[in-house]
Design goal:
alpha/beta, Rossmann fold, 2 domains, 7-stranded mixed sheet, 15 strands, binds zinc ion
Protein backbone atom coordinates (compact mmCIF):
# COMPACT_ATOMS: atom_id res chain seq x y z
CA UNK A 1 0.00 0.00 0.00
CA UNK A 2 1.15 3.52 -0.80
CA UNK A 3 2.55 5.43 2.17
CA UNK A 4 0.81 8.76 2.87
CA UNK A 5 4.08 10.25 4.19
CA UNK A 6 6.77 9.24 1.68
CA UNK A 7 4.66 7.96 -1.22
CA UNK A 8 6.62 4.70 -1.37
CA UNK A 9 5.33 1.20 -0.83
CA UNK A 10 6.03 1.10 2.92
CA UNK A 11 2.63 0.07 4.29
CA UNK A 12 1.63 -3.59 4.64
CA UNK A 13 -1.77 -5.20 4.95
CA UNK A 14 -2.65 -6.13 8.55
CA UNK A 15 -2.28 -9.89 8.04
CA UNK A 16 1.20 -9.52 6.54
CA UNK A 17 2.46 -7.85 9.71
CA UNK A 18 0.56 -10.22 12.02
CA UNK A 19 1.91 -13.27 10.15
CA UNK A 20 5.47 -11.91 10.46
CA UNK A 21 5.36 -11.69 14.26
CA UNK A 22 6.74 -15.15 15.16
CA UNK A 23 9.85 -14.79 13.00
CA UNK A 24 10.59 -11.18 12.07
CA UNK A 25 12.88 -10.46 15.03
CA UNK A 26 14.20 -14.00 15.58
CA UNK A 27 17.86 -14.91 14.93
CA UNK A 28 19.08 -17.49 12.44
CA UNK A 29 21.54 -20.13 13.76
CA UNK A 30 24.48 -17.96 12.63
CA UNK A 31 23.33 -14.69 14.23
CA UNK A 32 25.71 -13.38 16.88
CA UNK A 33 24.23 -12.10 20.12
CA UNK A 34 26.72 -10.04 22.04
CA UNK A 35 24.86 -8.35 24.89
CA UNK A 36 26.31 -4.92 25.68
CA UNK A 37 26.03 -2.96 28.91
CA UNK A 38 23.81 0.05 28.09
CA UNK A 39 25.16 2.09 31.00
CA UNK A 40 28.73 2.35 29.72
CA UNK A 41 30.28 3.16 26.29
CA UNK A 42 30.41 0.20 23.85
CA UNK A 43 33.67 -1.81 23.71
CA UNK A 44 36.55 -0.14 21.77
CA UNK A 45 36.69 -2.89 19.10
CA UNK A 46 33.47 -1.43 17.62
CA UNK A 47 30.37 -3.00 16.17
CA UNK A 48 29.73 -6.21 14.24
CA UNK A 49 28.19 -6.22 10.75
CA UNK A 50 24.72 -7.71 10.05
CA UNK A 51 24.56 -11.51 9.75
CA UNK A 52 24.30 -13.03 6.28
CA UNK A 53 20.59 -13.60 7.07
CA UNK A 54 20.29 -9.80 7.03
CA UNK A 55 19.54 -9.32 10.72
CA UNK A 56 21.62 -7.88 13.51
CA UNK A 57 21.17 -7.95 17.29
CA UNK A 58 19.83 -4.59 18.52
CA UNK A 59 22.90 -3.97 20.73
CA UNK A 60 25.22 -4.17 17.68
CA UNK A 61 22.98 -1.72 15.81
CA UNK A 62 23.29 0.62 18.78
CA UNK A 63 27.08 0.22 18.81
CA UNK A 64 27.06 1.14 15.09
CA UNK A 65 24.93 4.25 15.73
CA UNK A 66 27.22 5.16 18.64
CA UNK A 67 30.30 4.93 16.39
CA UNK A 68 28.66 7.35 13.93
CA UNK A 69 27.89 9.80 16.73
CA UNK A 70 31.54 9.68 17.85
CA UNK A 71 32.76 10.02 14.27
CA UNK A 72 30.59 13.13 13.78
CA UNK A 73 31.82 14.66 17.03
CA UNK A 74 28.37 14.55 18.65
CA UNK A 75 29.62 12.07 21.27
CA UNK A 76 33.02 12.22 22.99
CA UNK A 77 33.13 8.45 23.49
CA UNK A 78 32.41 8.69 27.20
CA UNK A 79 28.61 8.62 26.90
CA UNK A 80 26.78 5.42 27.85
CA UNK A 81 25.37 3.32 24.99
CA UNK A 82 21.80 4.14 26.02
CA UNK A 83 22.44 7.86 25.30
CA UNK A 84 21.98 7.00 21.59
CA UNK A 85 18.21 7.21 22.11
CA UNK A 86 14.98 5.24 22.33
CA UNK A 87 14.39 2.39 19.86
CA UNK A 88 10.92 1.98 18.36
CA UNK A 89 10.81 -1.18 16.31
CA UNK A 90 8.52 -1.77 13.35
CA UNK A 91 6.26 -3.58 13.79
CA UNK A 92 6.03 -3.10 17.55
CA UNK A 93 4.39 -5.86 19.60
CA UNK A 94 4.87 -7.49 22.97
CA UNK A 95 8.23 -9.31 22.92
CA UNK A 96 9.86 -11.49 25.53
CA UNK A 97 13.46 -10.98 24.39
CA UNK A 98 15.45 -8.25 22.60
CA UNK A 99 15.05 -8.24 18.79
CA UNK A 100 17.40 -9.19 15.95
CA UNK A 101 16.61 -6.35 13.59
CA UNK A 102 16.09 -6.80 9.84
CA UNK A 103 16.53 -3.92 7.40
CA UNK A 104 14.29 -0.89 7.85
CA UNK A 105 12.83 -1.97 11.16
CA UNK A 106 13.92 0.72 13.61
CA UNK A 107 12.71 4.28 14.21
CA UNK A 108 15.23 6.01 16.44
CA UNK A 109 14.10 8.75 18.81
CA UNK A 110 17.20 10.62 19.87
CA UNK A 111 17.95 13.94 21.56
CA UNK A 112 21.67 14.38 20.66
CA UNK A 113 21.22 13.66 16.92
CA UNK A 114 21.17 16.47 14.33
CA UNK A 115 20.22 16.39 10.63
CA UNK A 116 23.63 15.53 9.21
CA UNK A 117 24.30 12.53 11.42
CA UNK A 118 20.66 11.42 11.00
CA UNK A 119 21.18 11.34 7.22
CA UNK A 120 24.32 9.22 7.71
CA UNK A 121 22.42 6.85 10.01
CA UNK A 122 19.82 6.26 7.28
CA UNK A 123 22.51 5.70 4.66
CA UNK A 124 24.96 3.61 6.63
CA UNK A 125 22.89 1.66 9.17
CA UNK A 126 20.53 -0.59 7.21
CA UNK A 127 18.21 -1.30 10.13
CA UNK A 128 17.30 2.38 10.53
CA UNK A 129 13.97 3.42 9.05
CA UNK A 130 13.79 6.98 10.41
CA UNK A 131 15.48 9.29 12.90
CA UNK A 132 13.38 11.69 15.00
CA UNK A 133 14.66 14.47 17.22
CA UNK A 134 13.45 13.68 20.73
CA UNK A 135 12.30 16.53 22.96
CA UNK A 136 10.82 16.44 26.42
CA UNK A 137 7.21 17.25 25.47
CA UNK A 138 4.45 14.89 24.35
CA UNK A 139 3.56 15.30 20.66
CA UNK A 140 -0.08 15.79 19.62
CA UNK A 141 -3.08 17.13 21.48
CA UNK A 142 -2.56 16.83 25.23
CA UNK A 143 -5.52 18.88 26.42
CA UNK A 144 -9.16 17.71 26.00
CA UNK A 145 -10.35 21.31 25.87
CA UNK A 146 -7.91 22.07 23.00
CA UNK A 147 -6.63 25.19 24.72
CA UNK A 148 -2.95 24.19 24.51
CA UNK A 149 -1.47 24.19 20.98
CA UNK A 150 -0.22 20.73 19.97
CA UNK A 151 3.44 20.16 19.09
CA UNK A 152 5.29 17.61 16.95
CA UNK A 153 8.80 16.21 17.00
CA UNK A 154 11.12 16.91 14.05
CA UNK A 155 11.63 14.11 11.57
CA UNK A 156 15.35 14.38 10.75
CA UNK A 157 15.65 11.64 8.12
CA UNK A 158 13.73 8.71 6.62
CA UNK A 159 10.02 7.85 6.74
CA UNK A 160 8.74 7.63 10.29
CA UNK A 161 5.59 5.66 9.85
CA UNK A 162 5.57 2.44 11.83
CA UNK A 163 2.97 0.07 13.17
CA UNK A 164 2.10 -1.35 16.56
CA UNK A 165 0.21 -4.62 16.83
CA UNK A 166 -2.16 -4.87 19.79
CA UNK A 167 -3.82 -8.12 20.71
CA UNK A 168 -7.43 -8.32 21.78
CA UNK A 169 -9.76 -11.26 22.41
CA UNK A 170 -11.33 -10.71 19.00
CA UNK A 171 -7.90 -10.80 17.33
CA UNK A 172 -4.98 -8.49 16.63
CA UNK A 173 -5.32 -4.89 15.49
CA UNK A 174 -2.57 -3.23 13.43
CA UNK A 175 -2.12 0.47 14.07
CA UNK A 176 0.08 2.57 11.81
CA UNK A 177 1.10 6.02 12.92
CA UNK A 178 3.51 8.76 12.02
CA UNK A 179 5.80 8.57 15.01
CA UNK A 180 6.93 12.23 15.16
CA UNK A 181 3.33 13.39 15.51
CA UNK A 182 1.87 11.11 18.13
CA UNK A 183 2.67 10.07 21.69
CA UNK A 184 4.76 6.97 22.17
CA UNK A 185 2.90 3.83 23.11
CA UNK A 186 4.29 0.35 22.97
CA UNK A 187 2.19 -2.82 23.14
CA UNK A 188 2.59 -4.82 26.34
CA UNK A 189 1.36 -8.25 27.19
CA UNK A 190 -1.89 -6.83 28.45
CA UNK A 191 -3.45 -3.48 27.68
CA UNK A 192 -5.77 -2.30 30.49
CA UNK A 193 -7.66 0.06 28.15
CA UNK A 194 -8.40 -2.74 25.69
CA UNK A 195 -9.50 -4.91 28.64
CA UNK A 196 -11.83 -2.13 29.79
CA UNK A 197 -13.39 -1.76 26.33
CA UNK A 198 -13.90 -5.52 25.99
CA UNK A 199 -15.52 -5.67 29.42
CA UNK A 200 -17.90 -2.77 28.72
CA UNK A 201 -18.82 -3.96 25.23
CA UNK A 202 -19.54 -7.50 26.43
CA UNK A 203 -21.64 -6.14 29.27
CA UNK A 204 -23.59 -3.50 27.33
CA UNK A 205 -23.74 -5.22 23.91
CA UNK A 206 -24.19 -1.85 22.18
CA UNK A 207 -25.33 -1.04 18.64
CA UNK A 208 -23.26 2.14 18.77
CA UNK A 209 -19.76 2.51 20.14
CA UNK A 210 -17.87 5.81 20.21
CA UNK A 211 -14.13 6.20 20.78
CA UNK A 212 -14.21 9.94 21.42
CA UNK A 213 -10.45 10.52 21.82
CA UNK A 214 -9.44 7.81 19.40
CA UNK A 215 -5.77 8.56 18.75
CA UNK A 216 -4.80 6.30 15.86
CA UNK A 217 -7.88 4.13 16.44
CA UNK A 218 -6.92 1.47 18.96
CA UNK A 219 -10.10 1.23 21.03
CA UNK A 220 -12.48 2.01 18.19
CA UNK A 221 -10.97 -0.71 16.02
CA UNK A 222 -11.04 -3.21 18.91
CA UNK A 223 -14.77 -2.41 19.14
CA UNK A 224 -15.09 -2.83 15.38
CA UNK A 225 -13.31 -6.22 15.55
CA UNK A 226 -15.87 -7.24 18.17
CA UNK A 227 -18.50 -6.74 15.48
CA UNK A 228 -20.37 -3.68 16.80
CA UNK A 229 -22.73 -2.43 14.06
CA UNK A 230 -21.89 1.27 14.30
CA UNK A 231 -18.47 2.52 15.42
CA UNK A 232 -17.54 6.21 15.54
CA UNK A 233 -13.97 7.35 16.14
CA UNK A 234 -13.01 10.95 16.73
CA UNK A 235 -9.89 12.97 17.46
CA UNK A 236 -9.22 16.68 17.19
CA UNK A 237 -5.59 16.16 16.08
CA UNK A 238 -5.18 15.61 12.34
CA UNK A 239 -2.38 13.06 12.68
CA UNK A 240 -4.59 10.96 14.97
CA UNK A 241 -7.82 11.21 12.96
CA UNK A 242 -6.07 10.54 9.65
CA UNK A 243 -4.29 7.44 10.93
CA UNK A 244 -7.46 6.16 12.60
CA UNK A 245 -9.04 6.38 9.14
CA UNK A 246 -6.04 4.77 7.49
CA UNK A 247 -5.96 1.99 10.11
CA UNK A 248 -9.61 1.22 9.37
CA UNK A 249 -8.43 0.59 5.81
CA UNK A 250 -5.38 -1.43 6.95
CA UNK A 251 -7.57 -3.68 9.14
CA UNK A 252 -10.56 -3.92 6.77
CA UNK A 253 -9.99 -7.66 6.19
CA UNK A 254 -11.16 -8.25 9.79
CA UNK A 255 -14.28 -6.11 9.49
CA UNK A 256 -17.69 -6.61 7.88
CA UNK A 257 -17.07 -3.89 5.32
CA UNK A 258 -16.86 -3.83 1.55
CA UNK A 259 -15.03 -0.59 1.25
CA UNK A 260 -13.30 2.05 3.37
CA UNK A 261 -13.42 5.51 1.84
CA UNK A 262 -10.88 8.02 3.08
CA UNK A 263 -12.23 11.47 2.32
CA UNK A 264 -9.31 13.62 3.43
CA UNK A 265 -5.75 14.22 2.31
CA UNK A 266 -3.03 13.97 4.96
CA UNK A 267 -1.04 16.92 3.63
CA UNK A 268 -4.13 19.16 3.45
CA UNK A 269 -5.23 18.11 6.94
CA UNK A 270 -1.88 19.26 8.33
CA UNK A 271 -2.79 22.83 7.31
CA UNK A 272 -5.62 22.82 9.89
CA UNK A 273 -4.11 20.47 12.46
CA UNK A 274 -6.77 20.91 15.15
CA UNK A 275 -10.46 20.86 14.26
CA UNK A 276 -13.39 21.81 16.46
CA UNK A 277 -16.43 21.26 14.25
CA UNK A 278 -16.21 17.53 13.43
CA UNK A 279 -15.24 16.72 9.84
CA UNK A 280 -15.85 13.31 8.33
CA UNK A 281 -12.46 11.78 7.47
CA UNK A 282 -13.50 8.23 6.57
CA UNK A 283 -16.55 6.02 6.28
CA UNK A 284 -17.20 2.40 5.38
CA UNK A 285 -19.63 0.66 3.09
CA UNK A 286 -20.99 -2.73 4.05
CA UNK A 287 -22.61 -4.40 7.02
CA UNK A 288 -20.58 -2.46 9.59
CA UNK A 289 -20.87 1.31 9.63
CA UNK A 290 -17.55 2.75 10.81
CA UNK A 291 -16.85 6.47 10.70
CA UNK A 292 -13.88 8.60 11.65
CA UNK A 293 -14.18 12.30 12.45
CA UNK A 294 -11.68 15.01 13.20
CA UNK A 295 -13.18 17.36 15.76
CA UNK A 296 -13.84 18.41 19.31
CA UNK A 297 -15.48 15.61 21.33
CA UNK A 298 -17.91 18.18 22.75
CA UNK A 299 -19.39 18.66 19.25
CA UNK A 300 -19.65 15.02 18.33
CA UNK A 301 -23.18 14.60 19.72
CA UNK A 302 -24.52 16.59 16.76
CA UNK A 303 -23.62 13.61 14.56
CA UNK A 304 -24.85 10.79 16.80
CA UNK A 305 -28.30 9.15 16.72
CA UNK A 306 -30.98 9.66 19.36
CA UNK A 307 -30.38 6.17 20.68
CA UNK A 308 -28.12 4.73 23.38
CA UNK A 309 -24.41 4.93 22.68
CA UNK A 310 -21.56 3.30 24.57
CA UNK A 311 -18.69 5.79 24.66
CA UNK A 312 -15.07 5.41 25.70
CA UNK A 313 -13.46 8.73 26.68
CA UNK A 314 -9.77 7.92 26.61
CA UNK A 315 -8.70 11.38 27.66
CA UNK A 316 -5.06 12.17 27.93
CA UNK A 317 -5.31 13.73 31.36
CA UNK A 318 -7.07 10.86 33.00
CA UNK A 319 -4.69 10.90 35.93
CA UNK A 320 -6.45 14.14 36.72
CA UNK A 321 -9.79 12.90 38.13
CA UNK A 322 -11.35 16.37 37.84
CA UNK A 323 -10.61 16.55 34.09
CA UNK A 324 -12.06 13.06 33.59
CA UNK A 325 -15.19 13.89 35.58
CA UNK A 326 -15.62 17.13 33.62
CA UNK A 327 -15.30 15.33 30.27
CA UNK A 328 -17.84 12.68 31.32
CA UNK A 329 -20.23 15.36 32.50
CA UNK A 330 -20.02 17.31 29.23
CA UNK A 331 -20.58 14.10 27.27
CA UNK A 332 -23.57 12.97 29.32
CA UNK A 333 -25.32 16.31 28.90
CA UNK A 334 -25.85 15.54 25.22
CA UNK A 335 -25.56 11.81 24.57
CA UNK A 336 -27.81 9.07 25.90
CA UNK A 337 -26.36 5.71 26.87
CA UNK A 338 -23.23 5.05 28.87
CA UNK A 339 -19.79 6.61 28.94
CA UNK A 340 -16.65 5.38 30.65
CA UNK A 341 -12.99 6.28 31.04
CA UNK A 342 -11.04 3.20 29.88
ZN1 LIG B 1 6.69 5.89 4.07
ZN1 LIG C 1 21.50 -14.50 11.14
Amino acid sequence: MKCPVCGEDCVNEAHELIDSMPSIFSPCPDCSSRILDKNIPPPPEGYRKPCRCGKRFIDEVYAHLYALLVNEGVFSGKEPLKAVGTPLVHPGFHMTSPPYLPENSLVLLSSPVEKKVAARMIQEVPEIRAVIKYESFTPGVVDPDLALPPKSYDLLAGCDIRANIFSSRAGSVVLYQQQSKIHIEFPRWRNPKIDAVEREVLRANPDWFVDAFCGVGKLGLVGARMGIAHVVMNDAWYAAAFWAAYNTLVNREFLEVEDVRILADYGKMSEAPVARKPKLIAETEGEQDIRVYQGDFRELHTLLPAEPVLAALDIFEKRDPAASAAALQVWREHVIGEAFIP
